[in-house]
Structure formats: structure tokens, C-alpha cells
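Need FadR/GntR family transcriptional regulator's 3D structure for a figure. Predict it.
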Amino acid sequence: MAATDKALAGLRQMIASGALGPGEKFPPEPELCDHLGVSRSSLREAARSLAALGVIESRHGSGTYVSALDPAEIISRFSLSVELIPLEGVLELLEVRRVLEAHATAAAAARQDPLLEKQLTDILNRLEATTDAAEIQALDAEFHDAICTAGGNPTVTALTGVIRGRGGHYRIFEPGADFDAIKQTSDRGHRAILAAIAHRDPAAAATAASAHIAQTELWLRALRPDPQVALGEG
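Structure prediction for FadR/GntR family transcriptional regulator:
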């Protein structure tokens, strides 16, 4: 095992076992190196890797600490890797999103938040009124994020957001022969989701969400668009 891998495995074991809990400060560097049997350079490289994942954080003038280990925050860092996944992998992720978002949409319907219906109606009114691809993409994301947030599980919201972010790079709402049909079908799918939430029907909400995302999978399989990622986009 390479020295850096050994240091990384040691730190992960300490955190996973609870020897270093959320918010706790790391032991002094020399002590930690002795405990893990690694050099300072290997330890620092391993620490940088964990920092990139949101597992640890450095506080200027204070030292290195385990982060809060918030699941949603850590999962949001997956976007660094997920954005590299090609279309076939994205289609597999959409199956995961379909299950998670169906659950979140059912939960949102069950929670019966009276403000959610108004929020979603406003988003859909703007979404149905536009034919601008970038605006469609943004409003679609806002709609689904609002529902997942209302579902009450931040981890599910973060994970579906990461998947949706990569899927959004394969844009199906670009001008072309299929644009009107795709847009109209998508709008109907959104309305079906909203209707189920408004009627406080979790089963219907889950079915509508699952069907809507399954339709997106079908479009991506049929159109197979190239990813469009702007420089600096994250």
C-alpha cells in the first residue's frame, strides 16, 4: 500500500470508528504520524483528499477538525465525480433518481404544506410560458428541488440534485423537430405531479413523479444528445 493510501485508510478508520467524531480536533501532526506510521507529507496529502470530500476542514490558526459529517453536504461533493459520467452512466443514475424522487414527492404530498402548491404553480406558470432552453432547464430544476426539499430529507434532496445536475448537461429542450412534443409532454408531467400534491395523494404523487422521470430517460435514450458543459460550470 502506498504511503498516502495508508494515511488515508488510517484517517478514514479513525473517523468511521468514532475515534474522531464530528467536530473534533485532530491530534497534533507528529502524534498522528506516529499513530498511523506515515510521514507528514503523506498525512497532509491524505488530509487534502478528505477535505475535498467535505470530511475534514482546516481552521486558520486553530488546526484540523472533522467536519459535521452532514450527509447532504458530503453527497453534494459527489458532483465532482458525477459530472464526468457519460450518458450510459447517467441513464443508470436516472433510475436511482426515479426511485428517490418518487419517494420525496410522495412525502411532499403527505406533508400537506399549503405553501408548496402555490410555489409550484408559480414555477409551472413560468415554465409553460417559456421556450428558452436555458430558462426551461433552470425552472425545471427549481420545480423538482422545491418538491424534494418539501419531502423533508436533505440527503435525498442533495443526491437527486447531483444526479439532476449531470442529467441537465444532456439537454433535450434544444430547438428542433421534437421540441414542441417534448415540451408539451414535460409540462403535462409536471402538472400531473402538482395535481397529486394538491390533492394530498402520496401514491398518485409517487406514480406521477416516477412516470415523468421515466419519460426523461426515454428521451435521452432516443435523442442521445452530447453533453453541454460550459467552462467553469460546477
